[in-house]
Amino acid sequence: MKKTSVYDWPTRLFHWLFALLFLAAFIIAETVDDDSSLFSYHMLAGLTIAFLLAFRIIWGFIGTTYARFSSFKLKPAELFQYVKDAVITRTKRYLGHNPASSYATIIMFISAIGLAVTGILMTSGSETDLYEETHEILANVFLIAVIVHLVGIVFHHFKHKDALWSSMMDGKKKALPDKVGISNIKPAAGILFIIITLLWVGYLGAQYDRNTQSLDLFGTELTLGEEEHESVSAFEDEDHEQENDDD
Ligand code: HEM
Ligand code: HEM
Asked: Is the beta carbon of 119 within 6 A of some atom in ligand 2?
């Protein structure tokens, strides 16, 4: 069957970087002690995810047809019908994101934003149980969305003999009679996206001080690793001193 281009370069590059960094951040968080210097890579991966996402959101408004949020299928009734049909009988094919992956994408994006916000709040001195708990809940929501996403892809492959998974690699899907694919897969924008991401990683590297495990993020001091606790106690000490002065 004839295939047509659907996902442009920036969308596909974003997808694989986002997936890789999510796995890295998650695995580090679950296997490395948060006092270890290796834990810094958790936060550097998380901050890079947030950076990639900022670009993906802009691309969601100015990118090619199926990268745009306006092409996402977010009507709850359509999601319900889609899942019911896919499980019971035949699945409806979509050229862009189907309703289930549209929802999974939005859930992953919102959790990633929340993780970056709570992560920054935790490491900038305002550590409270609320931020930590919210961070943990969001990480689990993200993980569930990823698992559902992967189960969906495997399900499509085996039950519907639809190799949907390859569309995030070659950017192509089986053509549909009433829908047109994209005519420009935007390789130059993809290369620019990679260059800007590398610049961001370079910026993070330059702003990160290995000795103090702190990162100056546009003037906000994020204290990573074990220093984090010391900086919190430094704040507490200041408060005590102030209280004493007031006395
Ligand atoms: C940690 C692992 C993964 C994460 C976090 C993830 C995340 C995402 C996200 C955010 C999207 C939406 C892309 C966008 O529009 O920007 C997406 C779509 C997609 N992903 Fe993944 N993904 C993961 C693993 C995989 C794997 C292993 C495959 C296939 C081998 C895959 C195949 C796809 C496909 C085919 C779509 C498009 C679905 C559609 O057309 O409806 N993903 N994924
Ligand atoms: C998508 C990105 C991220 C994911 C998936 C993620 C996931 C996680 C997970 C699973 C944990 C362990 C929670 C627990 O079991 O207690 C954790 C802890 C933590 N994360 Fe993240 N995180 C992300 C981004 C960030 C960012 C951007 C920062 C900081 C700038 C950050 C800072 C932290 C810190 C400091 C902890 C330790 C909290 C504690 O002491 O319990 N994270 N993260």
From this structure: yes
Secondary structure element (H or E) that encloses residue 215, with its range: strand 214-217
Lowest mean pLDDT among 1-5, 93-97, 217-221, 223-227: 223-227
Q: Could you give the CA distance from residue 193 to residue 200 in angstroms, rounded to a whole number?
A: 11
73 alpha carbon – ligand 2 mean position (Å):
30
As given in the structure block, the two tokens for residue 12 are 């596909």
Residue 190: CATH number of its domain: 1.20.950
Q: Please give all residues whose beta carbon lies within 6 A of any atom in ligand 1, as ranges.
A: 11, 14-15, 18-19, 22-23, 56, 97-98, 101, 105, 108, 146, 149, 153, 164-165, 167-168
What is the C-alpha separation between 10 and 189, in angstroms, rounded? 6
Would the CA dihedral through 131, 133, 135, 137 be positive or negative?
negative
Give the CA distances from residue 102 to residues 67, 75, 91, 113, 201, in Å, rounded to whole numbers and listed in that order. Answer: 11, 10, 15, 17, 28
Residues of the domain holding 206: 3-246
Residue nearest to atom 19 of ligand 1 (CA): 168
In angstroms, rounded to a whole number, what is the distance separating the alpha carbons of residues 45 and 48?
A: 5
> pLDDT tens, 111-144?
999 999 999 999 998 767 999 999 999 999 999 9
Task: Give yes or no for residue 25 CB within 6 A of ligand 2.
Answer: yes
Cα of 129 to ligand 1 centre, how many Å? 32
Global confidence as pTM: 0.91
Count up the domains in the chain and report the number. 1
